[in-house]
Amino acid sequence: MVEYKLLNKDRYSRARLGKLQTRRGVIDTPIFMPVGTNATVKGIWQHQLEEMGAQIILGNAFHLYLKPGLEVMREFGGLHAFMNWEKPILTDSGGFQVFSIKDKKVTDEGVLFRSPIDGSKIMMTPELSMEIQMTLGSDIAMAFDECVAPGMSREYAEESVTRTTEWAKRCISYHDRSQALFGIVQGAFYKDLRKKSAAEITSMDFDGFAIGGLSVGEPFQVTKEILEYTVDLLPEDKPRYLMGIGSPDLIVTAVENGIDMFDCVLPTRIGRHGTALTWNGKINLKAAKFKYSKDPIDEECRCRVCQTYSRGYIQHLFSRDEMLGKILVSYHNIHFLLKFTERIREALATDSFKEFKEECYNRGLIKEALISES
């Protein structure tokens, strides 16, 4: 259901330029995917996502199962028609959301928890996750996995890898292949467990592979170390997806380690609190120092917000708790990450990714300057 085509490889790292063919069009990789958990990227219209250059967005099986529910999705003919979005959609299996719920019971059958909406008991199983995602009709579905918390014992992490493998088998068995299906490699922060999980998951008939269980609160260096180790365990001829990352430093780290796809709620989450991403680092637009500023959020940005509104105006909106301020900064932040990733693709196409990374380091966007030859 998807086909990955490699176009170019960086000389100094694992970074790669490619295209991902889906049933709803071609996606240029590496690609940042805005998150539309509840069938909406918070504060952003669908046509605005298109004008910013979004090629694929995310929806979440867990939340859309709770509301509006599968009956509504069936009535509308799936998520694309429901939210009026014609480009590709990837749906999260709900595994991370289940992991985030404190009061739950994990068994080999699935995860038992109470609905955060009405308190009813729900048993989320691999089969139910597949049923939800098939009903949503996303272009890429994710296998249901168990994401363990940082600090979990090795013994539990080992049990979790086995459980994730068995759940992956059940996902493949139940899934009707009406959409692409990606498997997820787990293993916490143990390299031998990552190796075991990768060997088992990549042996199955998945269309692509994700690295799960990272960027869940661990230090940056731990993320980097486990990512570097795990990527080499994945096949080169299929797309690679690192779940839940969206800061410039993590994006560059992911790309230089051969990741093709990544997503995060970061641009809209920090945007709602007044923090803007710029080519010279983050700025807090709620700060009083911007009260008289006529400058745009970022002088290098060509987004609609930066071409129209000043820092002073946006600071005023936040000082009066006007929703427009949250919308404007969210729009800018998504645009910034889409353009940031576009710049990465341009660098990979012209064999200048090393220079791009050094530029990002000099601007304070990332923490490490040099790429060591692989």
Explain what this protein looks like in three dimensions:
Helices cover 40% and strands 19% of the residues. It is built from 14 helices and 16 strands. It has helices at 46-52, 61-66, 70-76, 79-83, 95-100, 126-136, 154-174, 191-202, 220-231, 248-256, 266-271, 311-319, 323-349, 353-362, and strands at residues 3-9, 16-22, 25-29, 31-34, 57-60, 89-92, 104-106, 111-114, 121-124, 140-142, 180-185, 208-211, 240-242, 261-264, 275-278, 281-284. The strands form 4 sheets. Strands 4-14-13-12-11-10-6-5 form an 8-stranded parallel sheet. Strands 1-2-3 form a 3-stranded antiparallel sheet. The protein has a 3-stranded antiparallel sheet with strand order 7-8-9. Helix 9 (220-231) links the parallel strand 12 and strand 13. The longest helix is centred in the C-terminal third of the chain and has 27 residues, at 323-349. It is globular, with a radius of gyration of 20 Å. It comes from Kosmotoga pacifica.
Task: Please outline the helices and strands.
Layout (H helix, E strand, L loop, with lengths): L2 E7 L6 E7 L2 E5 L1 E4 L11 H7 L4 E4 H6 L3 H7 L2 H5 L5 E4 L2 H6 L3 E3 L4 E4 L6 E4 L1 H11 L3 E3 L11 H21 L5 E6 L5 H12 L5 E4 L8 H12 L8 E3 L5 H9 L4 E4 L1 H6 L3 E4 L2 E4 L26 H9 L3 H27 L3 H10 L12
Parallel strand pairs: 4-14, 5-6, 6-10, 10-11, 11-12, 12-13, 13-14
Antiparallel strand pairs: 1-2, 2-3, 7-8, 8-9, 15-16
Helix pairs in contact: 6-7, 7-8, 10-13, 12-13, 13-14
